[in-house]
Specification:
- This protein has 7 helices and no strands.
- With 108 residues, the chain is mainly α.
- The chain has one domain: lambda repressor-like DNA-binding domains (434 Repressor (Amino-terminal Domain)).
- The longest helix has 15 residues.
Amino acid sequence: MAKKEYAEGSFGAYFVKLIKDHDYSQAKFASDLGVSKTYLFDVFNGRVKPPTPDMQDRIVELLRLTDDEKNDFYSKAADGRHELPKDIVDYLTNNQAEIDSLRERMRA
């Protein structure tokens, strides 16, 4: 059986490689994450959006991503969801001074 190829540059292709690079099988990863293999394959194939921010945190923990990997993962997932990256949202949510500063820069 031929190996499945995911769209080059897609979140799915990136996510498949990330899981493999961290020595997980896709089935074991789905089980440990608490999702069905069908859902995971739908993410890989772009049939559903990348995981929700809450699930992103679980993925980061499961894979034990480095800071650079985590930043890249949050950014790629956010791009696929058309949202701000989760770590940025968390930072802004807890930092009113930064929100005020950002608004000031936007007015300039």
